[in-house]
Design brief:
Elements: E1 7-11, H1 22-30, E2 33-36, E3 53-56, E4 59-60, E5 63-64, H2 68-80, E6 85-89, H3 99-109, E7 113-116, H4 121-128, E8 142-146, H5 161-166, E9 170-174, H6 180-189, E10 197-202, E11 210-215, H7 219-226, E12 232-236, H8 243-246, H9 249-253, E13 279-284, H10 290-303, E14 308-312, H11 321-329, E15 333-335, H12 349-369, E16 374-378, H13 380-385, H14 391-399, E17 406-410, H15 416-421, E18 424-427
Parallel strand pairs: 1-6, 1-7, 2-3, 2-6, 8-9, 13-17, 13-18, 14-15, 14-16, 16-17
Antiparallel strand pairs: 4-5, 9-12, 10-11, 10-12
Helix pairs in contact: 2-3
The structure holds S-adenosyl-L-homocysteine.
């Protein structure tokens, strides 16, 4: 690794954390600062030194936690402090990743950088859905296209539908799910047969992967009916017919499932052997004692030599007694909140939401790191109830948790999907509370 390089623009790959390059992994291990996106598998952050700064820049289509200019500026700023900076981007940094713009700023500032390619989502979708993008019997070319069609300002860079319609090559559309009807219409209008096979591969290379097989004529309707969720790529061309024979990944995940069937609920977490299961407990309700019960479990687990980790959502309070106690026990406790959550219309609410999302990304990294036996997500239910986190996104992370792992969730108003997922749910009911009698919060009792 070059000593003068300050910034590494690294492709994280499409989803499976094993698909990052060896060089990309080394860069993460060396980094002083990591800036990462929403589409990067958070498990990759397990390679980053605990001393390094991790900055979630939460970029996905149409929603930027940090505007692009600020990301560019942050790269220059951190590199200027003499730090080794890794800018980790989903897939390949130069495929619909605005990687070019980010290093352009660096080039202008004279900061030495390197680009480490990654497996782009379209290639991963082909590989993991058993659809070779080129094949001697079908086609000799493949084209990567943005499906983000309606917002192009520059007409000259608009999609060349006549060229795409005329050819026979495989087409791979990124960011195309919401525009799938336009994509299919334009391709048919410009010469592709209405019965051209196509595949919509969502969450490629992850346990959530689904492949929907359709034709240009019926894909929009199928996508709506099946409720396909992003991220997804759309593969168009005769090579899609090979999926039926060559699919290996989904068949292995759910032997009984065929493509285009809705994903079986919690399939990855319902193995036969109960002792190897992920165990999920929830402490909810309006009474006092939810976090306290969770800390009790931490104590028990430490006593058995188990590796415990605690992430606190919403909280940001250095004075709580548990911080010092847990430190003595060697249990890392990380506060991911910003304190008292204002109403959604308050200007600071968005910052609280970003903090909660960052916390969820940290939780996901911890869950998949393989380094823990018990993970407590304190106040995660309350974060969902206050709209800081999407319940289904939390469920989605927890459902994939590798066994055997115990997860403890606390907070008021646990939502139905979380309750449904959990094995044990206790509701703590207030009978009376000292606070109502004017007794203030006390050390060792409330904090
Ligand atoms: N630089 C990235 C692409 C970023 S654009 C890359 O090379 O892969 C974001 C788009 O990538 C999404 O809208 C979706 O079309 C695609 N994508 C990213 N991850 C994906 C995944 N795991 N499965 C399917 N599509 C994915």
């Amino acid at each position: 690794m070059n000593k003068t390089t300050r910034v590494y623009l690294v492709g994280a790959g499409p989803g499976d954390s094993g698909l990052i390059t060896v060089k990309g992994k080394r860069c993460l291990q060396r980094a002083d600062v990591v800036l990462y996106d929403r589409l990067c598998n958070p498990a990759l952050l397990g390679d980053v030194s605990p001393a390094a700064e991790q900055i979630y820049v939460g970029k996905n289509m149409g929603h930027h936690a940090l505007p692009q200019e600020q990301i560019n500026a942050l790269l220059v700023e951190k590199a200027g402090e003499g730090k080794v900076v890794v800018r980790l981007k989903g897939g390949d940094p130069f495929v619909f990743g605005r990687g070019g713009e980010e290093i352009d700023t660096l080039a202008e500032a004279g900061i030495p950088f390197e680009v480490v390619p990654g497996v782009t989502a379209g290639f991963a979708a082909g590989a993991y859905a058993g659809i070779p993008l080129t094949h001697r019997d079908f086609t000799t070319s493949v084209t990567l296209v943005t499906g983000h069609v309606n917002t192009r300002k520059n007409a000259q860079r608009d999609i060349d539908w006549p060229a795409l319609g005329r050819g026979h090559g495989t087409l791979v559309f990124y960011m195309g799910l919401t525009n799938i009807a336009t994509i299919c219409d334009e391709l048919i209008r410009h010469g592709r047969a209405a019965d051209t096979p196509m595949a919509v591969v969502s969450h490629a290379s992850t346990p959530q992967q689904r492949t929907l097989i359709a034709t240009l004529a019926d894909a929009p309707q199928q996508v709506a009916q099946q409720g396909v969720t992003s991220p997804a790529v759309i593969l168009v061309g005769d090579v899609v017919t090979l999926h039926e024979r060559l699919d290996w990944f989904q068949r292995r995940l759910t032997p009984e499932a065929t493509s285009a069937q809705p994903q079986p609920k919690a399939s990855a977490t319902t193995p036969q052997d109960d002792s190897a299961r992920t165990n999920i407990l929830i402490f909810t309700g309006n009474g006092k004692g939810k976090s306290t019960a969770a800390f009790g479990m931490a104590l028990r687990a430490v006593g058995h030599g188990q590796r415990v980790r605690i992430l606190q959502f919403m909280k940001n309070d250095p004075d709580v007694g548990e911080l010092a106690a847990l430190e003595r026990l060697g249990v890392p406790l990380e506060q991911c909140g910003l304190g008292f959550v204002p109403k959604p219309e308050h200007p600071l609410y968005a910052a609280h939401r970003d903090a909660a999302e960052h916390g969820l990304a940290r939780a996901e990294a911890a869950i998949f790191s393989g380094n823990h036996d018990l993970i407590i997500l304190d106040e995660v239910c309350g974060s969902v109830a206050r709209g800081l986190l999407d319940e289904h996104k939390v469920v989605d992370v927890l459902r994939r948790a590798p066994a055997p792992l115990t997860l403890v969730l606390t907070g008021r108003h646990a939502g139905p999907a979380l309750i449904d997922l959990a094995d044990t749910v206790s509701e703590i009911q207030p009978v009376k509370h000292a606070f109502e009698q004017g007794i203030p919060a006390r050390k060792g009792v409330e904090f």
